[in-house]
Every structure is written in C-alpha cells, then in structure tokens.
C-alpha cells in the first residue's frame, strides 16, 4: 500500500526505486537505466511509449496482466460487499423468523384440546421480541492500535499506583530511557575505540530479482548508477576518439598531398631555371627540348620566371 491508502501500481515492478543526491524519490528503468521521478503516470508512459528496450509483446503482456489483476480486485471487492450485506440481512431476517415461530407455537398450543387452560393462557401471552444479532462494525486498524495503546497505558498507571517503583514517570526510568540500548548503533559507536574507523550507515530498498524480493543497499545502488554513468561517458569518449582519429587520417592525407605538390612545384621551378640558363647561353631550342623536356604537369609559363 502506498501513501493515502491506494494500492501501488503494477508498473513499479519494472523500476528500481531510490533517492537522488537531493533526497527526492526517483525511479530507474530496469531496461534502459533512465532515471525519472517516481510518479506512476511518468513511469507508465515511459514503459508503454518511450522505452526503446521494451518490445510490443512485452507491453501487450503487461497490459493483459494489469487487466487480469484489476478484474480480480473488482471481484474480491464485490464478494466482500456481498458478505457484508449477507451478514446484515441475516441478522434482521433471523429476528423476524424467531417472532413468527413464537406466534405459530402459541397458536398450536391453543388448538390442542389436551392442553390445560392455564397452559393455553400462559402460551397466549405475547412473547418478548427477539434481540437481533449485532451487525459487525469494522474498526480501522489505526483506531484499534490507538485503543490498545491507551488501554496498555492505563494498565501501567494502575500498576504504578500500587507499586511506585514501576512508575513510568520515575526518575530512574527516565534516566534509563535516555541511555542508549545495548545493541543500538549509538551504543556501538560509544564502545568503539578512538583508533577504529566509523562504518557508514546505509539504507536499503526492496527489489524484485527472479520473482523474489531482495534487499538492495542504497550505497550499492549509487555505485551502480555511477558505474553506468561512467560507462556512458566512456562510450562517448570512444566515439569522440574515433571521430578525431578519422579527422587525423584525413589531415595526414591532405598533408601528404600538399608535400607532393610542393615537391612537383620545386622540380618544375628548377627545370624552368635550367632551361632559361641554357637559352641565355645561346643553346638552340631543339637541344633544350631534348635535354630538359617540358612535362605536361609543368604548365608554368617561362615568361613568369
């Protein structure tokens, strides 16, 4: 049962409940590890529409189970209401039947000739009305506990009146209440030596594992959540690293192309300078073409040198 007396939704079995660093209630999806507020509407919307790790067959099976559980709950409520009505009607009908039986019995006694007159007169007197059976009254559990507590307190006060040593308001009992219990954590901390390390207190929650509820420490839950976040960051870094490696290879290829272009330009410049020196020395153009032929890639005009 959740707060307000309502039954917990069946969607909670697919989420891991806990608290975040601010102390707010959160729920983590068992399929995609997404963290959200522990609200049934948000969780049901995530499970039925948003979670990419839940297939359609699983969703359909869960909705069928939910309808089945709702039908069972409605049938149980109707059966309980019928039992209450049957108990109430049985108490009223029981009183009516008893009255009719009493009147019928007196008539039978008067009609019998073997019965004396004084017996007939006694039987003809109006029989007292039967007391109807008490209708059961449902008392809330909180009220019953409060009544039991008040009764126990009253009994303690009555005992204390006869024996002052047992009074709950005595100074000795007040002093004993202030002292920590023998097995409490406060007593263990006080008994601990100064050199020993203090163990951190941890809280736990229930989680359904293989159909059985098991208690999971919140500290372990925080570690698991931190581990999942680190794994996500690691995947993101690996992806970023792959992108940078690809960019690095592209830059290396571009750098090699640039170096090759620079080498070709340098060779072309040297070739053009040599052709110019030969031409200035008076060497015929045919011999220059034979010695230093102009390659197709060297399209730089000689007038620019």
Automatic annotation (TrEMBL):
<dbReference type="InterPro" id="IPR003656">
    <property type="entry name" value="Znf_BED"/>
</dbReference>
<feature type="domain" description="BED-type">
    <location>
        <begin position="6"/>
        <end position="58"/>
    </location>
</feature>
<dbReference type="GO" id="GO:0008270">
    <property type="term" value="F:zinc ion binding"/>
</dbReference>
<protein>
    <recommendedName>
        <fullName>BED-type domain-containing protein</fullName>
    </recommendedName>
</protein>
<feature type="region of interest" description="Disordered">
    <location>
        <begin position="148"/>
        <end position="202"/>
    </location>
</feature>
<keyword id="KW-0175">Coiled coil</keyword>
<dbReference type="GO" id="GO:0003677">
    <property type="term" value="F:DNA binding"/>
</dbReference>
<keyword id="KW-0863">Zinc-finger</keyword>
<keyword id="KW-0479">Metal-binding</keyword>
<feature type="coiled-coil region">
    <location>
        <begin position="216"/>
        <end position="261"/>
    </location>
</feature>
<keyword id="KW-0862">Zinc</keyword>
């Amino acid at each position: 049962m959740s707060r307000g007396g309502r039954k917990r939704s069946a969607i909670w079995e697919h989420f891991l409940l806990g608290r975040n660093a601010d102390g707010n209630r959160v729920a983590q999806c068992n399929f995609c590890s997404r963290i959200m507020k522990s609200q049934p509407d948000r969780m049901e919307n995530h499970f039925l529409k948003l979670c990419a790790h839940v297939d359609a067959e699983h969703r359909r099976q869960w909705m069928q189970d939910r309808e089945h559980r709702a039908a069972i709950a409605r049938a149980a409520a109707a059966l309980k209401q019928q039992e209450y009505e049957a108990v109430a009607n049985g108490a009223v009908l029981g009183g009516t039947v008893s009255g009719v039986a009493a009147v019928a019995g007196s008539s039978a006694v008067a009609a019998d000739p073997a019965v004396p007159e004084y017996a007939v007169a006694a039987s003809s007197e109006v029989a007292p009305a039967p007391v109807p059976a008490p209708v059961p009254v449902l008392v809330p559990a909180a009220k019953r506990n409060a009544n039991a507590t008040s009764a126990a307190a009253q009994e303690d006060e009555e005992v204390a009146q006869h024996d002052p040593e047992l009074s709950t308001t005595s100074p000795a009992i007040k002093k004993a209440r202030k002292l920590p219990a023998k097995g409490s954590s406060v007593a263990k901390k006080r008994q601990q030596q100064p050199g020993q390390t203090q163990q951190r207190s941890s809280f736990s929650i229930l989680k359904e594992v293989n159909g059985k509820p098991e208690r999971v420490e919140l500290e372990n839950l925080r570690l698991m959540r931190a581990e999942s976040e680190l794994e996500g960051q690691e995947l993101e870094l690996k992806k970023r690293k792959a992108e940078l490696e690809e960019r690095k290879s592209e830059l290396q290829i571009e750098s090699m192309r640039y170096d090759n272009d620079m080498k070709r330009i340098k060779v072309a410049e040297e070739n053009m300078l040599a052709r110019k020196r030969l031409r200035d020395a008076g060497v015929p153009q045919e011999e220059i073409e034979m010695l230093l032929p102009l390659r197709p890639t060297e399209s730089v005009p000689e007038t620019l040198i």
